[in-house]
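Before the break, one more example. Copy the sequence into your notebook; we will annotate it together after we see the structure.
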Amino acid sequence: MAEAGNSVANLVYKRVSTDQQSTARQDLVLAEAGIEDSVVFEEDPGTSSRLHPLQRPKFGELLTYARPGDTVHISEMFRLVRGNQHILDVLEVLHRDQLALRIHDGAFSTMDLTARHPRTGELLSTVKFMVQTLAAAGELQRDLQRELTYDGLRAAEAKGNRGGRRPALAGSAVADVRTAFLEGQSIAALAREHNVSRGAVRTAVDDLLPEHVAAAEKTLAPELPVTLDMPGKVADYLRATELKPAERAALDQGTTVRRGQGYTLRVSAVPAVHRGLLAHCQPLDGGQDLPAVPAQRKARREYENRVSALTP
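Here is what the structure looks like once it is written out:
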């Protein structure tokens, strides 16, 4: 970026609303204007038009760089401002900093928007009136366009047609792109080959991208039921204990296996339920003013060993 020095500078401001747009039209208009030795300030793609111009990063840099007598050049007014108040705010700052504004296309291109009253220094009332009138007309045009678009979509919907933008890649092209991506071709190369944006390619291969696969791998698989033998003394204690519905169901559905004078309850449940049942029979180890019964404590620890062997 060249320094302006003591001479006046031509400061060019450019902006597009989405990263799918280019500055080609602005470049053409500005090139036809024959601006000499320009210093260009271009917003990052997608900088919203709803954001006040004085809050946009590159326009702020432009104002910081500018010196009295410099001229700000834009292709069309809506590249810089939309609403009435935004226009007046910008003109006030340009007047304060003694900067001129030159618009090279559209209704404002024939007006000197920085014209001031020779004695008061105020923005000319005629300029204010024309700015507000033209801005209101532009706003009306956008509102009418939205209404026409809405009516068109409703009419198409009534005929069974679906509105919205068609996908850039469809049918066999999607399959070709996915196959090429799996074979190692880059997203950038596929975008160039099919003459679409990188975003369109990413949409087509979204579920194949490393971050998607990694996220899927992090998703825990559902737990499967595991069958464990629960000592009868543990089962007897748990039957008299308040349990959760899933724990109660697992206990009630257990199969009794006789072993000598005792028995074992064969319980099928997911590991989380087995751990819950084990937690409920903790008092069998004694404590909380309850005496420990050696046979019950031994039974609980047998069940604990079996539950602990489950994969966490």
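The first strand starts at residue 10 and ends at 14. Confidence is low (pLDDT under 50) at residues 1-5. Try to locate both features in your own notes.
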